[in-house]
Design goal:
2 strands, elongated, two-stranded antiparallel sheet, 29 helices
């Protein structure tokens, strides 16, 4: 800092200013000398075709080489020194600009055209084959497989059967794929039809499709892409800079400009433009303006940005290809020996193989990325026309700066994806779960912005202490550093005490009391049934119904009934009948449930007449009929019964349509409670009589009578039920 302050104070500053002045004067004189030597007596001067750029072979859409471009301007004249010196400076700007732009466009085509790879393809393939011949020897193979077998044996001894199987499968895969790879180690990388070339061709095809070109020839597509870049970044900007506007808008002037530039003659260019009607373009040629200096400087800056963009893209493409070549050489060692040995060598082989395969996708992504930007910039130039070319140049430079930043992100993202795929392959081969510091399953893909290693190590130590039971006991907390650790420890202790000491005993006592209650209900119903003269099957059906009234779970029916003295076969039959009953009962909430249960039981009886469990079905029909009748209240005052209405209902209850028309809804709603209960209780009573009669004598006549009564009750329930519940309750 002291040295810098001394430089800008006193005599040191004056000396520095003098040196800068001398350098500026020398530059001015050199520019003047170059202008004088390039002058012509009566014509215009121009920097002729740049022979140093001929080798790039970059042409525009008109077939004119960029190396032939020239900047035509005023001849040297001692009487107009200002314009003459301005012309010389413009020539210098043009030389630098055309070199920068041509280099950038050539570099893009050079990178995606794989011309650089053709130069040493043969040498690399020969080196790889010689290296594989020296490494892949029988002795090396025997040693590697022996070490791999030891690893398999160790896994078997330790009980890691899955790892052992995975290792055997991996060794077999390496043994099968190894000879095919070692026969031509870098064939898939360097071959004109290899993975890299196919990825490049696919990317070029997609990029060309985006730009409106469907021709599948990669060589043609690269040239077409270069021609588009040459038109947008060289031809049109040069015409605006040199002539004041884009003369390509006129087809005749476009051909005139092409012929003049191809001829390499500034005079010819001027004559051609005058002949096509672009005489105004000669104004800037004969009289250069200071504004052209600024335009040239702006174009030079934009061209530099284009070079940076091209350099980044070319570096990415070349890096991907060379990285694939590097991993191809490493894969020779992996297939020759490393892939048979469990551990890092197998991981390295998986990474090498995956990198070679992902290189094609990377190449495709890079070229598509370039195609998208070329399409975007081309659309910008087409939208604005010739009047806005310079504005688009500036906008394009900004876009290219953004593209450079985004390209770096794309390259990092592809690298993380490559590593994630390799980790997955390696983890699968070694029979272990993949993972790392990043997102789940992404290895360490998310650690790019993580905490420093020291901080992570400290957090790991703290977490270890927190999870240690010794620390928890010392600090009277399960996890001492967690929120409300001590209170949670106390709550867990209380829960443990209740679970170990209180809940099992209480649950056991509750289960014993419940079982006693269910057994008592079953015994009570069985006793009442036997007192009424029921047989054993009917008695069992009543016992099952008694247990169900208390809400007992299905799992206890068998044990409770068997402890009550019933036969196991009879119990199984009763359980089957109960299951049939559940399935057959309607779930319509608008119908009376007890009636629907009895109706379902009767339906099961009709369907199971020939079943070995027919007696159990009849018994269940009697039980459900009894439940229905027990819940139907008789009329409180029979003198209130409207017998005319009852007779009207009875006359039509065998036909639901006739009943619906004979007794409208309003008439149902107008009846008193005793009248409706009279109808409901009569149907339930008749059904109970029919059920007992059929259970005692299962004849067809009794079954028909029971079905007729049930049908009447169902018709009443379907019509009156939605209107009023007073028929049954």
């Amino acid at each position: 800092m002291r040295r810098c302050r001394q430089m800008w104070t006193g005599p040191a500053r004056a000396a520095l200013l003098r040196k800068l002045g001398l350098v500026g004067a020398a530059t001015f004189l050199l520019m003047f000398a170059v202008g004088a030597m390039a002058s012509a007596a009566d014509g215009v001067i121009a920097v002729p075709g740049n022979a140093g750029l001929v080798w790039t072979r970059v042409t525009d859409s008109g077939g004119v080489r960029l190396s032939d471009y020239m900047f035509a301007t005023k001849s040297f004249d001692l009487m107009s020194m200002g314009e003459s010196m301005l012309a010389v400076v413009l020539q210098f700007e043009f030389v630098g600009w055309i070199v920068v732009v041509t280099t950038a466009i050539w570099l893009i085509g050079f990178a995606i055209g794989f011309q650089w790879l053709d130069a040493f393809r043969g040498a690399l393939q020969g080196t790889a084959q010689l290296f594989a011949f020296q490494v892949a020897t029988p002795m090396m193979l025997a040693a590697a497989t022996s070490i791999g077998a030891v690893c398999v044996g160790w896994f078997v001894v330790r009980g890691y059967t899955a790892k052992a199987v995975s290792q055997v499968v991996t060794m077999l895969a390496v043994a099968i794929l190894g000879p095919m790879f070692l026969a031509e180690p870098l064939g898939d990388v360097l071959s004109p039809d290899g993975l890299l070339a196919k990825g490049r061709n696919l990317g070029i095809a997609v990029a060309a499709g985006l730009n409106g070109n469907s021709r599948p020839d990669p060589g043609y597509l690269v040239s077409s892409m270069q021609a588009g870049l040459a038109d947008n970044f060289a031809r049109r900007p040069l015409q605006i800079w040199n002539l004041g506007y884009v003369v390509d808008g006129n087809a005749a002037c476009k051909q005139a400009w092409n012929a003049g530039v191809a001829a390499g003659s500034p005079d010819q260019l001027k004559k051609n433009l005058a002949a096509c009607g672009a005489a105004g373009a000669s104004t800037l040629i004969d009289h250069p303006s200071p504004g052209q200096l600024g335009t040239g400087l702006l174009l030079l800056i934009c061209g530099t940005v284009l070079v940076l963009f091209a350099a980044f893209l070319a570096a990415g493409v070349m890096w991907a290809a060379l990285d694939s070549i590097y991993h191809g050489f490493r894969a020779i060692l992996g297939f020759a020996a490393g892939g048979f040995v469990y551990g890092p060598t197998q991981t390295a082989l998986a990474r090498d193989v995956v990198d070679s395969m992902v290189a094609a996708a990377t190449m495709c992504a890079y070229v598509i990325y370039l195609g998208v930007y070329v399409l975007f910039l081309g659309n910008l130039f087409r939208q604005v026309g010739s009047a806005g070319v310079m504005a688009v140049m500036v906008t394009g430079a900004v876009v290219e700066v953004v593209a450079i930043v985004q390209f770096r992100r794309l390259r990092r993202g592809l690298g993380r994806g490559n590593k994630w795929i390799a980790d997955k392959f390696a983890a699968t081969a070694q029979g272990r779960p993949s993972g790392g510091g990043g997102a789940v399953g992404m290895g360490d893909a998310g650690t790019g912005r993580s905490l420093p290693a020291a901080a992570l190590a400290t957090l790991a130590v703290v977490n270890t202490i927190d999870a240690n039971p010794i620390a928890a006991n010392l600090l009277l907390a399960r996890n001492p550093l967690q929120y409300m650790a001590r209170r949670r420890q106390q709550a867990e202790s209380m829960n443990i005490d209740m679970t170990v000491r209180g809940w099992p005993r209480e649950a056991q006592l509750r289960g014993h009391l419940d079982r006693s209650t269910w057994a008592h209900a079953a015994a009570r119903r069985a006793r009442l049934a036997r007192a009424a003269g029921a047989d054993e099957i009917m008695t069992l059906a009543n016992a099952v119904d008694g247990i169900g009234d208390l809400g007992a779970p299905d799992s206890v029916y068998g044990s409770v009934l068997e402890s009550a003295g019933f036969d196991r076969d009879m119990i199984n039959a009763a359980m089957r009948v109960r299951a049939f009953q559940r399935v057959a009962t309607s779930g319509n909430q608008r119908l009376y449930p007890q009636l629907q249960k009895a109706r379902a039981a009767l339906g099961n009886v009709q369907a199971q007449l020939a079943s070995p469990d027919a007696a159990s079905f009849r018994a269940w029909y009697v039980v459900t009929s009894s439940n229905w009748l027990s819940k139907i209240a008789p009329p409180l005052d029979r003198s209130n019964v409207n017998h005319d209405f009852v007779r009207m209902v009875e006359a039509n209850w065998d036909n639901p349509h006739a009943l619906h028309h004979a007794v409208p809804d309003a008439l149902w709603l107008s009846q008193n409670r005793d009248t409706l209960h009279h109808i409901g209780h009569r149907l339930a009573s008749e059904n109970m009589i029919n059920a007992q009669a059929f259970a005692a004598a299962p004849t067809a006549a009794n079954l028909e009578q029971a079905a007729r009564t049930m049908q009447r009750a169902h018709v009443i329930d379907s019509i009156a039920g939605p209107l009023t519940a007073s028929v049954w309750a």
